[in-house]
């Protein structure tokens, strides 16, 4: 007597039933909200949503606004620097932690602790640290180096890098933990084989370990990229977008126009562009993660 395989549609019925509320929420809230936003970005909505169709006028106005262009430039600078620096620092810290050092738990907690703080707290802390009157500059000058200058938040040309310092301080700990989990998942036999073959440690990391950690790197990339696109609290707490508009970001532009400028149409257009930026990251990740598995 042969037992028939259950149809794929009827497998894991309890799990699929349990997932129904989440699926409905995602479709109604996320998909519905996104489509509603994109639709009203084509209108001349001001204080309240109003279906007065104007086509792509809001997008033309958006890309002709200096503040928006500066915010995109800042997002690019912050994003590229944040990705590269956080990955490098996070991986180096994880590699050091993976050496089974003493007091590992203590060091790991200290490095991860900033991630537990809100961006508002982080921004205010680093606003104080980078203040030339009583921060790092004041302390160094108090030691006798009277010509020392370090006031990135008050210099429009480098203010975005002051934001970057605070972002790295908060986010690098999480990346370290993710990288450390990936390193701990590497089979110890690989390390032993590399030592027997006389392969230097740095080559083992570069050509063997890092390629094996591809899933960890992709997941970390998506998390960091999503946090970069929506960065808002850090800007408000540290500089408020200043000096001038030198540290403006797209998320702050959206908030200011939707709630401060009472121009919903312009805010919807800007948020739609932010959604496209997120999709540029998420779609390749989904393809690499799920498309590759199906082909395999």
From TrEMBL:
Chief subcellular location: membrane
Protein topology in the membrane: Multi-pass membrane protein
Annotated signal peptide: none
Source organism: Pseudoprimorskyibacter insulae
Superkingdom classification of source: Bacteria
Annotated PANTHER family: ABC TRANSPORTER PERMEASE PROTEIN
UniProt entry keywords in alphabetical sequence: Cell membrane, Membrane, Transmembrane, Transmembrane helix, Transport
GO-annotated cellular components: plasma membrane
Subcellular location(s) per record: Cell membrane
Protein name, UniProt field: Lactose transport system permease protein LacF
């Amino acid at each position: 007597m042969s037992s028939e395989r259950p149809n794929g549609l009827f497998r894991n019925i309890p799990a699929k039933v349990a997932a129904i509320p989440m699926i409905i929420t995602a479709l109604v809230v996320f998909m519905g909200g996104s489509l509603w936003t994109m639709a009203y970005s084509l209108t001349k909505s001001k204080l309240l949503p109003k279906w007065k169709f104007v086509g792509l006028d809001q997008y033309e106005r958006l890309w002709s606004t200096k503040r928006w262009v500066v915010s995109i430039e800042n997002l690019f600078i912050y994003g590229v620097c944040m990705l590269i620096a956080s990955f490098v620092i996070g991986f180096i810290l994880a590699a050091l932690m993976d050496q089974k050092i003493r007091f590992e738990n203590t060091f790991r907690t200290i490095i991860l602790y900033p991630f537990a703080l809100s961006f508002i707290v982080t921004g205010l802390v680093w606003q104080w640290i980078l203040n030339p009157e009583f921060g790092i500059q004041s302390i160094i000058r108090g030691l006798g180096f009277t010509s020392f200058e370090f006031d990135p938040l008050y210099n429009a040309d480098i203010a975005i890098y002051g934001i970057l310092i605070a972002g790295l301080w908060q986010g690098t700990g999480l990346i370290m933990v993710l990288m450390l989990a990936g390193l701990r998942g590497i089979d110890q036999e690989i390390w032993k084989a590399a030592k027997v073959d006389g392969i230097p440690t740095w080559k083992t990391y570069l050509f063997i370990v890092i390629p094996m950690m591809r899933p960890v790197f992709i997941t970390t990339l998506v998390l960091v990229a999503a946090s970069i696109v929506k960065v808002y609290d850090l800007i408000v707490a540290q500089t408020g977008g200043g000096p001038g508009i030198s540290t403006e970001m797209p998320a702050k532009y959206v908030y200011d126009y939707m709630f401060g400028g009472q121009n919903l149409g312009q805010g919807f257009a800007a948020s739609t562009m932010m959604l496209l930026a997120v999709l540029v990251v998420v779609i390749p990740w989904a393809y690499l993660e799920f498309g590759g598995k199906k082909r395999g």
